[in-house]
Amino acid sequence: MATPKFSKSKISFHLDLKKRISDYFDDKRIPKTGNRTLYIKAVIMVLSLVSSYIYVVLFTPHWALALAVCMLMGALTAFIGFNIMHDGAHGSFSSKQWINNLAGLSINFLGANVFMWKTKHNVVHHAYTNIEGVDDDLNARPFLRLAPSQRKYGIHNYQHFYFIFTYSLLYLYWVFFTDYKKYITGKVGIVPIQRMKVADHLSFWGFKVVHLMLFVAFPIYMVGLVPWLIGFTIYGLFAGIVLTSVFQLAHSLEETTFPIPSVETNNLEDEWIIHQIRTTANFAPRHKLLTWLLGGLNYQVEHHLFPKISHIHYPALSKIVKQACVEYCIPYLEHSRLRMAVMSHIRHLRALGRGEPV
Predict the structure, then answer these.
(1) Which pTM does this prediction carry?
(2) Are 286 and 158 in contact (CB under 8 A)?
(3) Are 280 and 304 in contact (CB under 8 A)?
(4) What is the distance between the alpha carbons of residues 127 and 135, in angstroms, rounded to a whole number?
(5) In contact, 136 and 143? CB cutoff 8 Å
């Protein structure tokens, strides 16, 4: 399968929206990147993870408390990914590229690889959102059916019951399998990764070793094999649940679409910006704590339209985007509460699992 092509713009919506966003930053006289508030949050999250690691590995607390700390570390790993790595990889964390590179490298210390992530997320997911066969985020086969065009298996009848278990495996699967698969095959799904330089190869293997030393070898030496295995499993499973749930609540819903390219031309019906709006949804936009923890990824519409703008600006930008969508009669997908998005996702999984029209 070749990557599909988007239709050419028939309206001036994209240019108009870009101008409105640009005018907003000009009027406010603020940069589109992060600011002191974001940097303070980044320090708080990194120090919280480091402190939790030191406490559970070096001071070996009571097993119940240790498991709670491991869950906290799983959540902090996801939050660092959302707030620091994600903005850094998109080049929006700072106006200085070396700081963006450093922020992006945070994912390397946590076991994954920012080079592979940029292809999977920045290139593939952002360009071809919700297109089966291209967007690798839809690939949870054979355990889950996430798009109507995917093959249905009998087990999918129950996927709306067991999906959380599948989501919990993401982080461990990512760190210990899919990164290596991308490295060996040189592809993310059907899309080739950029040619790796010597420095990229050294970074890939060097950080994998660092991660194994920090999160496997040293903890086993300090607390023993079985305690480490239990703690690390809890940590990895909880990180997986948080990471996967946030991304699925933005794209795999009853309201979002899953466009299929024309068989004859391989073209998509919509232009890129309309495609992004129809395949993406916001959730709980007024929940300030959730927005803070998730790095603004509950404002997924704004992120997909303007990925090079830091997430700290998304609440303000959402008002501009929403108003423009109203004026151009373009649906703006949003769930006002988290539970509404969760229920929409579960209903979507149930409908797909039963083979019902979506």
Answers:
(1) 0.93
(2) no
(3) yes
(4) 8
(5) no
SS3 assignment, position 149: coil
Band of residue 1 on the pLDDT scale cut at 50, 70, 90: low
Q: How confident is the model at residue 311 (pLDDT cuts 50, 70, 90)?
A: very high
What φ, ψ does residue 196 adopt, rounded to 5°?
-85, 135
Q: d(Cα 164, Cα 157) in Å, to the nearest integer? A: 15
Assign 3-class secondary structure to 38-69.
Answer: HHHHHHHHHHHHHHHHHHHHHCCCCHHHHHHH
Burial grade of 328 (CB within 10 A; 0-12, 13-18, 19 or more):
middle
Peptide bond into 192 cis (omega under 30): no
Q: What one-character DSSP code corresponds to residue 216? A: I
Task: Compute the average pLDDT of residues 303-323.
Answer: 97
Question: From the CA atom positions of the chain, what is the Rg in Å?
Answer: 21
- Which tens digit of pLDDT belongs to each residue from 3-44? 777 777 666 889 999 999 999 999 999 999 999 999 999 999
* Residue 51 near residue 355, CB atoms below 8 Å: no
Place of tokens 């996430």: 146
Q: What is the C-alpha end-to-end distance of the chain, expressed in Å? A: 24
Residue spans per domain, the chain: 13-146+153-354
> What is the separation of C-alpha 275 from the centre of its chain, rounded to a whole number of angstroms?
18
